[in-house]
Structures
1.
Amino acid sequence: MTSLEWLMDGVIMLALIVLAIRVLLIPDLFRAVFLFIVFGLLMALAWVRLDAPDIALAEAAIGAGLTGVLLLDAVRHMHRPVSPTTQPPSEKEAAP
Amino acid sequence: MTMFLAYAVTGMIVFAIGLYGVVIARHLLRKIIALNIMAGGVFLFLISIAARNSQAFPDPVPQAMLLTGVVVALSATAFAIALARRIYTVTGSATLSDGER
Amino acid sequence: MDTIFPWIILLPLTGAIATFLVPRAWVIRTGMVTALLTSCMVFAAAYFLHQNGPVHYAVGSWAAPLGIRLYLDGLACVMLLLTAVSGIFISVYACEYFKDKTSGVLKREGIMFWPLWLFLWGAMNALYVSGDLFNMYVLLELLGLSAVGLVALAGTRTVLIAGMRYLIAAMLGSMSYLLGVAFLYAMHSALDTRMMGALIEPGMGAAIAFALMTIGLLLKTALFPLHFWLPPAHAGSSAPVSAILSALVVKGSFYLLLRLWFDVFHNVVTIPVGQFLGALGALAVLWGSIQAIRQQRLKMLVAYSTVAQLGYLFAVFPVTAGAPPTDGVLGQWVIESGKGTLYHALAHAFSKASIFLAAGIMVHALGTDQLSRMRGMAERLPLTTFAMALAGVSLMGLPPSGGFIGKWLMMHAVLGSGQWWWAVVIMTGSLLTAGYMFMMLRQAFQPCEDPSLFKPVPKTMEWAALILAFISIGIGIRAADVLDLLMIGSPFLIEPIAAVGGAL
Amino acid sequence: MSRFHWSMHVVCATAATFLAAVLIYTVMTLPSEPAGLARLVEDFMNVSGVEHPVTAVLLNFRGYDTWLELGVLLVAVLGMLLFQRQNDLRQIVRMPAAEPVLDWLIRLIAPMMALVSGYLLWMGKYSSGGAFQAGVVLGAACVLLWLSGHPSLESLSGRVFRFLLTVGFSVFMIAGALFMLSKQPFLTYPVATAGHWILLIETAATFSIAVTVAALIMGLQPTYSETEDQP
């Protein structure tokens, strides 16, 4: 294991842990979902490092992509007041 | 300290963080995100098991388990998000308001 | 036998697809035909099992370490019969329950009920015969999702919140179980239960895997400290769904715990672990019964009664953990307590399903399940009250009911193996069960002031509840041959089981 | 963050770190050079009908798991339809027609994505790829078409939509049950034509995964009868 590889793995691992903590503690929900998508992509990168490319492809597509889209869509809709009038999503701070 | 061990340890830490997140979060979407992080931790551990032995190709059985696990976790998350949105539409609040558990 | 075996799983799942695809008018017919066919298949499997013993079935004809092995023995067969018999009567009940009172047309929930219920039934049947650890994880998830779908069927506020809480608990349980399976695979590179049982040796890894998998399954069985999600989910959902959840779904994860304890972790478990699980069971019995007595609504009372009755099932673990494999005498008590636990599960399933169906009839007739409003039910709804009384007899454990046989075997085993304190718990639990059962029946036998309150109720619903109650009494009378069926393939042996080897 | 008392945070944090420490210690004790099933899979590869080990394990050796997993996906869509009180996607509001540049781009990309999806499906036999990756790419194409105002899943009739949802699960089951007629255990493919059967099952699975993925996203969008939908 060359030191360069160790450096890269170290960065990925550290980023995964820090991102996991940040996602849970960040107050704004939108940013939390974006960070979660980045977390999913980093997870896919880690799997490529552990030589499982096809599973990494599936994880990136399903984990980061699809779950991220569903969460983003849910956050956007959950900001609206219950009766979906046409006014844009109110900027009131989402329940933390 | 082989690569497998490093990633397995990261997986365990991420699992614990996810579990902490599920208990602490009050907003339903945060609980769902925390559940996914927990699942990510378990899957990282599974993948590092597959990469342990250094033959020609990694052990395909944990990878197959993983792909099945990812799709099962996806469908559970999609189900939870649909239910959370239904709760938001019906009750107007995105938390399990009456009594938090 | 090999031709019948997979049809137990294929039929309900085919029926689930069919009820999802057919137009509205055909949903009930397709659902009922599937339910009947599945039950016939299960009875046929039981008959074949009785003829030529337990069956190992390799899916895709791949041997165990690589492929998935299914295994049918007495224990699995009894659970299959439990699901089939209560499933039939719950399905008959559901046909009437979801019909709109005025127009008689199937309500929206009625359409969605059938695919989810048949998926759940197929997942239960597959779970009982599964012999592969990861396969059990996928089936647990399938079971959990369809159960949560059924809970949230009515779409009201309480039901949705209860469903969400149940879903989060189920997902936490599945993740913890999956991590346990991952640890086991990391250590022994096998996923088959029998093979793992032979390979496993006590150590830190095995202990952690055991703890994770047990906590996951306890969360899904809703044992005492982890039962928070059960009462609102079981009480809030519609009557046939509560019957399905209380009688069938919680028993699935308990069955897995039993399988893991006897097949996989038999030489990893220690006496304190058994005592700990027994203590949790005892706390569940006492706390659940006390909570049940304090309830004002019938369905909440019955839901807390489920939490309590589940506690009894855990009496088998302290007896088993105490018995070293080589000791023949103690081994005999283990088999006795295993029989007791299974019989209690069987009797509880039928009587609890019957009471929840009766509670559904009460809500159907009176519009509410407040205990105080139950006045005069005995006069106006004689069949329903009779069903409740019979089911109460079985829950309390009065002879000759199935519940009595279960409690008798458990007491016999517990006293025989020298752990007398569990007997005290079983006795007080029965007393408390009698308490809330008579509390419920006393209300029903009050004189009725205003007969006009009671709306007419379809007869099939009342007969479905009554027949289930008769069955829970009947299995007490026909205990001998049910126990013979249970002991085929000797499921409760505790000496290390030889690796799968020759059977394939 | 959450309105819990700070002591709850501290308690949960210490519990989580203790759990992590225990798990890490256990991971340290795991054997680093285990047997693993890689060699066993290698021995049976020639019989499995595909070259790529993961696809072989997924669809042949442990095909039962993958079949049940398609069932789990189906129950997820069933749940979504139940909560949205719909039977299909016909009620979903179609997006307004996109401006010409996006419209032209989508006309170019959508067939490309279908091509990539077919490629991934075909490559599943030889290298990384397979039903799930192909299905997700095809599903993304459907969502893109819907977003840009083109007719997509919401133009399907209820029956066709529901049939497409269940086609993957049913084809897998029928193919598996077919061989039981010749006294073989469930899901046993004849060795000679195993590859073709797996390809057939994967194609059906790709379609139903694509429709499921698109339905999970589009199903939650506002519908025409949103106002009537209020409880």
2.
Amino acid sequence: MITIDPETVPDAVEAAPAAISSEDLHRRLGLTDDELAAITDRLERAPNDLELAMFSVMWSEHCSYKSSRALLRTLPTAGEDVLAGPGENAGVVRIGDGLAVAFKLESHNHPSAVEPFQGAATGVGGILRDVVAMGARPIALLDPLKFGWPDDEPTRRLVRGVVGGIGSYGNCVGVPTVGGELLFDPTYTDNPLVNVMCVGLVAENGLAHAIATTPGNLAVLFGSPTGRDGIGGASVLASANFGQGSAEMRPSVQIGDPFAGKLLIEASLELVERGLVEGLQDLGAAGLTCAVSEMADRGGTGMRIELEAVPRREPDMAPFEVMISESQERMLAVVSPENVSAVQEVCRRWGLPSAVVGRVTDDTDVTVVDNGVEIARVPAKALASQSIEVERIASPPQRRRAAPAPGEVAMAHDGLPERGMDPGAVLESLIGHANLGSRAWVTTQYDQTVGTDTIEGCDHGAAVLRIKGTRMALVMATDSQPSVAMHDPALAAALAVAECTRNVAVTGARPLAITNCLNFGDPGNSEAFWQLSESVRGMSDACRALGVPITGGNVSLYNESPLGRIAPTAQIGVLGLLDDLELLMRPQFRNEGDLVVLLGEAGPGMAGSAYERLAGAAPEDRPPSIDLGREASLQKLLQRAAGDKLLNSAQDVSGGGLAVAIAECAIWGGLGADLTLAVAMSPAVALFGESPTRAVVSIAPERWNELARLAASMRIACRRLGTVGGDRVHIRLVGVGATGAAEARGAGVADEVDVPLSELHKAWTMALPRALGVEGIA
Amino acid sequence: MKVGVVVFPGSNCDRDALHGARLAGAQAELLWHEDTDLHGADAVILPGGFAYGDYLRAGAIARFSPIMGAVREHAARGGLLLGICNGFQVLTEAGLLPGALRRNTTLRFEHRWVRLAVERRDMPFTRGIPEGVTLRLPIAHGEGSYYLPDDDLDALEAAGQVAFRYAAPEGNPNGSARDIAGVTDATGRICGLMPHPERAAEAILGSDDGLLLLRSMVESAARVEALA
Amino acid sequence: MNSYRFSVAIMPREGILDPQGKAVEAALPQLGASSVHAVRVGRRIELTVDAGSPTEAREVVEKLAADFLSNPLIERWAIEEPEAVPA
Amino acid sequence: MNSYRFSVAIMPREGILDPQGKAVEAALPQLGASSVHAVRVGRRIELTVDAGSPTEAREVVEKLAADFLSNPLIERWAIEEPEAVPA
Ligand SMILES: Nc1ncnc2c1ncn2[C@@H]1O[C@H](COP(=O)(O)OP(=O)(O)O)[C@@H](O)[C@H]1O
Ligand SMILES: [Mg+2]
């Protein structure tokens, strides 16, 4: 399929035959016959080539959300503190003291698959500009990344390239990268996921909007000159116009220019602060066409573009190239005539070219004029809010349960003692697993402290940034559950929302709002679309139950490679607020002799867990389920306990289960623990199960009654496990599932975990370097 | 006592340096790179960042910027001049400090917390740092590997111009010659270092060791002002 | 078996943005070198090949330049005369 | 007034450790190119000068190469024949 959606076929250039016949031009531009009909219908005439090009980019999945818009309408987006929700460049929530936070997740998956370094770098640039377009100063980046297993050179190349690209851009513009995710799973081979979340700070009354309301105002394009970047499949037009071979001259790989990006951020923020602009919009996908039509459409106005006024990087650019170019580091401002000189002076001071390229009109059309000749006229809404929608069919997969092989114990949610494993050895291999070990090899390549606000950066749970001049701190986290999604996308999306908000809650903070990035396969495939719609359902249910609105996000479809479709990936990003930084709760053990307490209780279901990946799946097993009501209570409990200064540390139970959570508290705190764990079902479930709604906290012994009472009042199980101290992690297993099973087995396998802290620390530190085949980063 | 923080278009630690200087008790103000005077600053900081993109060579372009004329005069008058990270790179490119900062031998951008041994405590920038105290500061750079030919290094050490060295436990993060993290000119009034004192000026940020250095600078400058 | 010294020039493709060249060019006026323009910044790699013959050696370098040293998506490469190596 | 195209080669000085060159060399065996050694990685800058004569133009480039494009402490530079520009 030829499409000019850069998210689907970034290098479709090669795929495009040179000569084309005009009657199927639309198909070569990725438009269906129905879509052409719909265009003709909206125009009340047939489009010309330029208009067709504009429609083809605006009606691409990436810009029009034609397959997902109906689903996105079902999201819970209301909230009293929400100042801007889906539909804006980024969501914005009020945090008090006259301040607000703009934040959003965006994907750059396919460009990164083609050119990892530049793809990731331009992805960072793009999401930064979305936040800047709201008038907010970017203060943090988080980068959830997914790759195939890193045991082959191509995948390692992708990892190095993507990480290098993200660092190169974020480090240069001076926005700290304080969190994210790094997950390896075979389904991402050749189709890595590069999602980036940006968080920005803005005065409540200083918000900017991407809107053109006043006819007669002027459109000022500023930033890098326009070249033939990212024109991709639309080059069929070029080859049509310029003949054979010229398509080869249209590179679709975009190069990031972080220095220009930094200048653009400063200039844009100065323009907004000084009240010099009526509207501000970044140029992303579909370039000028998208910016112009969206701003006009939002304002119920029109926009007349004088093409020859657009500053160019290259000679002989065709009109369509100028209109759809995705050259990076550009913004469009709508400015009243008397402010134009001031605006251009700001741009000059920041060393940025700027030009008046158009005017807001009182018709509602986007008009393109080239040297006095009108060469395109399209209703703005036809390109933007009233672009086409496609109804997709969703059908669940036929689950063919493999019958247990003769003689095989098909016992659900178990594995450990029966497989004769030493739980200590399992813990070591889990904590040393590429998906669970230290991320230092990656995160030391990111500037985490620029801005002098980073309280917690990467590596220790949620990211925490203080806000200068206030007592407040922002707490941010990202999460996803692709391996559970392989079994149940709706459950996985709900689990991801729960875990992500829990990561915020354990610090004592209150989740304010959620952003997300929906990474899925070809929506034309009914199973892929089912995965998407199920994920949206699960995500919405969880957000409603936890009372957290969704304020923005992004959808990335066609994430497939010759090896197949990626695991359904609903990437979640949460913004939380801690009213008083003094009350910040951290995960690591603090004092010898503190009590270690487990809040919540383990449930069955090992499917999708890290342990399953290690020990193999039990055929009949399912993923753990979640009780969202109880999750909400646990999170309240954690906030209350932190607020009452009951706790000395708090860590949520997630990947690798309880044992890994405890090991992390110990490794990060440099203190061991001596614990006893009552096993209800099986040691595997108790130690390594990833059922949600649990946290490990440590408290001063004399606070036990208080905590127990508080937990009881919120109906959350609260059990003493033992005490902090020593240089080993020692977990004795007692109860039916443990000793019972062991006796039945009669084997000498220890029913206890007993590992020196130093060994755990080594395994944790070396996990990534080992997996990537690079030297260790101490 | 006033500290001026130079803002090149690609500076990204300018506001951090301003914040740090104020925490150290100074008045502080930003100085735009197109300006040609220092607005009466008693001490000048060239902050971290990527002055003019620094794609060619860190600091290579900045040394030609308009403000650098005033910075040179300030230095020539014996005014205090501190280059942090990119600021250090600019000072070496401008010939105001000896040596060059090459790509980290790890070939990676390195963000880590390091420990600095303070080689001399009788200089304006280190005066207030107690004996036996090492500084815990973050680094964040891709080109911080200090280089100078061996003979020149001997001379530099003999002249006592090595101000800071990377020390245990973390050690040398970027392959710098003789673990050098920061140097001064012959007078000790111009200082450059790769680590970021302004990012370690408050306990809640993980360390306030950087404040010792910034305070030393502010107090030394104040002293000069008093004499004048 | 002889040793042959080559140098490989790797430059950004035409039409591909070259931020380095752009930044250098923007600085030139400050240096009073405004008569200079169209700046492109690339890499130069010098290497020595042990081979039986110049052609054999050149083949090794060509393969290396195409498959490893350059990124064909955004860069072009050319092998240069050993003479061009700076002292 | 004519335009003259030049290319400037900037290489790490001999005797100075070149980590990039080392990294390339380290990768060569896996690429089956172990006959390659003594790799040095530098920069190549192409630019156009408007000047009255070739010599005049060359002087501009020499000054630029010496004062700006290279750092004499760690790098050497050489001006190359325009012919050497890759297609
Ligand atoms: N999964 C999602 N959940 C909520 N909002 C979404 C989602 N995907 C896209 N949106 C919203 O749709 C709008 C258009 O998204 P996008 O095209 O990515 O904006 P931009 O072009 O500014 O990056 C944005 O307001 C975005 O927040
Ligand atoms: Mg946008």
